[in-house]
Amino acid sequence: MSNKLSSSVPTDREVVLGILNNSEEALNKLYTGYFPMVLQFILNNNGDEDDAKDVYQEGIIVLYNKIKSGNFELTSKLKTFIYSVCRRIWLKKLSQNSRKTKDVSDFDDIISVEVDLEEHEEKDQRFEKMQSALLNLGEPCKTIIQDFYINNLSMQDICEKFGYTNTDNAKTQKYKCLQRLKKLFFQH
Amino acid sequence: MRNEIELEGIIEDYLNGKLTEAEAQAFEQLRLTDPSVDHKVVAHKVFLESLNDYADVLDLKHQMNQAHAQIDVEGLSKKLGPHPSFIVNLWRKNKAAIAVAASFILLTIVTIYSIQQTTQQTGTYEKLNKEMNSLRSSTNSLIRNVKSTHSVKPNVNPGKFGGTGFALSSNGYILTSHHVIEKSDSVYVQNSKGESYKVKMVYSDPVNDIAILKITDSEFSPLAPLPYSLKRTSSGMGEKVYTLGYPKDDVVFGEGYLSSRTGFNGDSLAYQVAITVNPGNSGGPLLDNRGNIIGIINAKESNSDGAAFAVKSKYIAEALNAIPQDSLVRRIASTKKNQLQGLKLTKQIEKVQDFVFLIKVYK
């Protein structure tokens, strides 16, 4: 508002369609387009560049999940949505760290994003659970699981990569890893 | 062990929709009959979804980090971060607020201005002492005639300013408006019979516009007991009131009603009275129809007819306290009973007029 955002900002439609089509370019445009806005907000409200990056990425994840969930309706400008979400996230972080939160300096309009953030928090919790479960899983299990489920390698590839004598061995190993990971994930 | 690995393979394929229709149906049948299998399916579904979300977010973060690397964060920070100057910062932060405040102030000014246009008593406040020289009407000569023929002590120098006053006690204490006798060289009072007496000022209160005079003339014979009394409490709107005064050299009656509990522009010292008064009425008593003095006429609004102002009687009571009490003989009472109560208006006037004086001021 007080400073013109210099980078080119994609249209809202472009962003939504791009994300639905997994377009990397659309995400890049979106990311670079609105980062200055959030950076400005964070810097002027007791934060630094790293805070801005964290908060902004979380905000983009919220938007991303909202669009991906399919029931996304453009009730406000994307800019306003992103700003409101990031603002909410940052204020919450500030209050958690019991840092000063009064006299928020605002640079844009705000809409209510409580519902979106509640959903996001649930997802975020599962993300963190999965992250810590994978971390506690140890090697080589972690890599095997990631290769199979995230990087979509075939059992054959994994068998070769880890030097198993046959795919059945690899399958058995993967099964054991998966059981442990599930146990870690569900026990929390 | 092998069975379980196979079962999980089937569950995964089932969840990923990789089973053929027949296989899927068979598997669903198994789910229905074996709760432990069903439980495994549900748990695995949740797990796979979480894992997928995790992978998605991880991927998204990776992409965002790449995008982030392209941004010149440092440069932006310098441009967008808090400005070292406090003033610039304040301006940046509160730009919106300042704009809102400014427009609010502007709106307020406009509103107040328009309200003033409609509600403020736009007429100027005009004190009702009479500048006799400036009266160009035919009554002017009439005054002179009366004055020269009827005065006990004929004045070589005719009074230049006039007002009204009324007796506070039998022994010659007279109350009038402060502005009537303000800056005067000498003051005379003249009763309804045309007799003049010299007075001196014993008390004046410019704030409440009250002055008390004392007749010092040796010719003066004490008055009868005062017919009216002083009302210390305030009167209500719509109260019928009348006044006697000297807008000309003879006493003039005026009748009206109390139209507001406050005076000019909300002045709480005074009442607003719907009554016709003229220059010369200043200092005249304002009486209700039970013979209580409720105020002193002191001004009117110049633009509108019938809007006069009267100082509230409680300030008379305050002024009275300033006079040594033993010097007041048969002073004005503040009882509710008085001689006028129940009398017809004409009778009341007849009684009151002997206690109302023309104040003649020489400057």
Explain how this protein is built.
The complex is a heterodimer of chains A (188) and B (363). Chain A has helices at 12-20, 24-43, 49-68, 78-96, 114-137, 141-150, 155-162, 167-187. Chain A has 188 residues and is an all-alpha fold. Chain B has 9 helices and 15 strands. Chain B has 363 residues and is an alpha+beta fold. Helix content of chain B is 38%, strand content 23%. Chain B has 3 domains: 2-70; 86-119; 124-363, Thrombin, subunit H (Beta Barrel). In chain B, 34% of the residues are buried. In chain B, helix 1 (2-15) crosses helix 3 (35-70) and helix 2 (21-33) crosses helix 3 (35-70). Chains A and B meet through helix 2, helix 3, helix 5 and helix 8 of A and helix 1, helix 3, helix 4 and helix 5 of B.
Salient structural properties:
heterodimer, A: 188 residues, 8 helices, 70% helix, B: 363 residues, alpha+beta, 3 domains, six-stranded antiparallel barrel, 38% helix, elongated
Q: Indicate the overall shape of chain B.
A: elongated
Shape of chain A: elongated
Assembly state: heterodimer
Main sheet makeup of chain A:
none
Write a short abstract of this structure.
The complex is a heterodimer of chains A (188) and B (363). Chain A has 188 residues and is an all-alpha fold.
Write the layout of secondary structure elements.
The complex is a heterodimer of chains A (188) and B (363).
Chain A: H1 12-20, H2 24-43, H3 49-68, H4 78-96, H5 114-137, H6 141-150, H7 155-162, H8 167-187
Chain B: H1 2-15, H2 21-33, H3 35-70, H4 73-80, H5 86-119, E1 125-127, E2 130-131, H6 139-150, E3 161-167, E4 173-176, H7 178-181, E5 186-190, E6 196-205, E7 210-215, E8 229-230, E9 240-245, E10 252-260, E11 270-274, E12 285-288, E13 292-301, E14 308-312, H8 314-321, H9 345-352, E15 356-362
Parallel strand pairs in B: 8-13
Antiparallel strand pairs in B: 1-13, 2-3, 3-4, 3-15, 4-7, 5-6, 5-15, 6-7, 9-10, 9-12, 10-11, 11-14, 12-13, 13-14
Helix pairs in contact in B: 1-3, 2-3
